[in-house]
Automatic annotation (TrEMBL):
It is found in: Mitochondrion outer membrane. This is Metaxin. Keywords: Membrane, Mitochondrion, Mitochondrion outer membrane, Protein transport, Transport. Its main location: mitochondrion. It comes from Characodon lateralis. Belongs to the metaxin family. Residues 173-236 form the Metaxin glutathione S-transferase domain. Pfam families: GST_C_6 (PF17171), Tom37 (PF10568). InterPro entries: Glutathione-S-Trfase_C_sf, Metaxin1/3, Metaxin_GST, Mito_Protein_Transport_Metaxin, Sam37/metaxin_N. Residues 23-142 form the Mitochondrial outer membrane transport complex Sam37/metaxin N-terminal domain. Residues 275-307 are annotated as: Disordered. Residues 295-307 have a biased composition (Low complexity).
Amino acid sequence: MAAAMELRCWGGDWGLPSVHTDSLVVLAYAKFSGTKLTVAPVDWTWKTLTASVPELVCGESVVQEPTQILNFLRKQRLNADYELTARQGADTMAYIALLEEKLRPALLHTFWVDAENYSNLTRPWFASRSPFPLNFFLPSRLANITLARILVTKGEGLLHRISEVEGKIYSDAKECLNLLSYRLGTANYFFDNSPTSLDAFVFGFLAPLHKADLTSSPLQSHLRQLDNLTRFCDNILAAHFNADKPCPLPPAMETMDANLQKLTQLVNKESNLIEKMDDNLRSSPQHKPHRPDPKSSLSSSKSSTPA
C-alpha cells in the first residue's frame, strides 16, 4: 500500500486554493496527475517561519521545490506528461525556464517590493496568517529575502538599488506573457486537450496575479488584456478546484486566532491613546515652561519698594 502524502503549503484566498505560486504549481499538478494529497496549510503555525513550502511528506521522504516534487510524483507513476512527445517535453522545459527567468522576478516585485501592494495586501495577509509574535516581523523578513532574490536573479549585486532594474523586470515579464498567450492561442491547454506540468506551472504563476486585489500593478493590467490567459486560469479553477473548500481551523486554532486579534486591537488602542496623550502634553499651555515677563517683574518690584 502506497504511503499517504501530505503537502505543506500556504493556505488559500482570493478564490485560489493557495496564494503561493510554488504551492499552486504542485496543487495543480496533483490534480492533473490524479495524486491524492492531504493539504496541510502552514497558516497560523510556527512552520510559517521554519518550513520551506511547498513541502511534500511521503513516509520517510521529505521533498521540497516544485520541480523536485513533480519528479518524485512521476517516480510514483503519477505522471501528467506521459503522453508528451520528446519535442513537447523539450518545449515544456524551455517554457518553465522562461517563466523562472522572465516572469518570476516581476511577480515577486509586484507582491513584495511595490510599496502600495505590500502595505495594502501582502503584508496584512501574511501577518494575519502568522501566529503571535511572528506576525510582527515575518512579512518584512520575507520581503527582504525576496528583494535579495530579485537582485541576484537579475544578475545585480545586493548593493544595487531595485529601481535600477525595475524597468527591465517588467519589460521581460510582459514579453513572457505575450509569448505564453501566443503559444496557447484558442486551446484549453498548452498541449492538446489534457493538462500537463507546463499548464501547472503557468497556472501557478498567473493565477495569483489574475485574482489578487492589487492596488497598483501594470503587470496585472497587461495580463487582463490577454483574454486567453485569464480564461485559462478560470477554466482550471472551475474544472479542478471548484469542489474544494477551505480547510476549517481547528477549535483551538480559532480561539488562538481570536485571542491574537483581541491582543493586537488592545495594543493598537493603547498605542494610539499614548500618542494622543503625548500630543496633548506637548500642545497644552500649562506644560510649557514658564518664562516671567521682565516688565511685569520690574513693575511688581517697584510697587513693593517702600516710598
